Amino acid sequence: MAELGIVDIREINNIIKSLYNYDFSSYALTAYKQRLERLMKIYIFDSAENLTRKLRNDPDFFDIFLSEMSVPSTEMFRDPSLWRWLREDYFPGHMNRSSGKLKIWFPLCVSGAELYSLAILLAELEIADKVQITATTISNKSLTVIKEGFYDLKKIEVSEENYKRFNGQKDLSAYYKTEKDYIVRNTSLTKDVDFRKINLNFDNAPQNVNLILFRNNLIYYNPTHQDIILQIMYRALSASGHLVIGIREKITGIIASRDFESVNDNESVYRKKI
Known about the structure:
This protein is an alpha/beta fold.
């Protein structure tokens, strides 16, 4: 497979925008290029021209494209200290502040690893009935994978270790069953989740959300679009709502000083200023 150049990527983006009204030009170029080349290798496209032809002639393939452009979280309970903070600090301090259910939003679910991690945490705290989770994703393929509980068997060992470091109440195996070459998670954990498909602009984002978990996603956007995304998150949050991003991501510059304040530097947790 030939390496994609800037002209190739621009042509792919133009085709997608003209046919499907999705604009990938705001994605960080290096990571986006890697995802495109990975897709081309998996689906055996030997040129950008063949990929654009497939996008033109097969609308169903576009959902596969969207799924492949999304970067999945590879582990459950990734960064266990964050999940311990949620269990020991965030939820005890916020469960009784709202007259209704505490609202949580996962803007870009791909594998469901973090969604199921939170669902397990809530079940062990016995507060799942007091929380409303909205999980959005850009592809139907991802929605199907998450809702049916499928998970890569190769990822379970590191997830088991993360769960032990989280100090969970059981073995992680209590929440899944093993098939031949994959895991099926206990979908009863997510039976009350509000699943939605969303576009790249988050046009139907939920509002008045208390907690947004958007970890390890900002790095895949260019700086200008990072600010746009942060504004969307700001508007979606309730007064003093919290935004959690990846531990290697930071909110900096004008956005940070005007709209957010850090409440946990180690875990990259921010609170909306009011």
